[in-house]
């Protein structure tokens, strides 16, 4: 028996995990490290930034708020995990693109330069302790031609995605460099998620 397993048995810590997210990508990423949530309960929040709010604090605030909102539905019974991904070009926050016009404007801002992707993660333990952190990754795009922009807009892959592109899809071919965490760009930084959950006493399958 590992030390972590014996700690769990000694303290009788419950092992229920609730993923506070509607994102199938987050569920897939958790599965990648052997974690299957016992429940999925998306938080229904207004994600509008405050006036002059910067990308990093926004990601952190929304992750913490999503986590708290869902924790109130599972008092003292489970670990809750939430995340929020924000794409920033300088101080500017790019939207989760819903229209082709928005997506085209994002591509214009991303083309031929670097931007930052911030993913806030927040977890709450059954004893109410909350832990929140924000992971920053720098991403560089090639200069996009008109043909590339048109093709990407036609693909529809930008729909509902922060910053108007999904690195795990066609846009992966536009990324020349990343500095930071690939899984954080997709929506859940696995290294930090494991650390946060373990820090709160949750047993993760990979020791
Ligand atoms: C930049 C980028 C973002 N994304 C996704 C991750 C997130 O799902 C989404 C950002 O929106 P979020 O508000 O972080 O998440 P969500 O609305 O999809 O789900 P929930 O709030 O319920 O957890 O953009 C990618 O899938 N690939 C990328 O390359």
From TrEMBL:
Cofactor(s) recorded in Swiss-Prot or TrEMBL: a divalent metal cation
Residues annotated as catalytic: 84
Coiled coil feature spans: none
EC number: 3.6.1.9
Pfam families per record: Maf (PF02545)
NCBIfam families with a match to the protein in the record: maf
Function: Nucleoside triphosphate pyrophosphatase that hydrolyzes dTTP and UTP. May have a dual role in cell division arrest and in preventing the incorporation of modified nucleotides into cellular nucleic acids.
Protein's recorded name: dTTP/UTP pyrophosphatase
Lineage: Bacteria, Pseudomonadati, Pseudomonadota, Alphaproteobacteria, Hyphomonadales
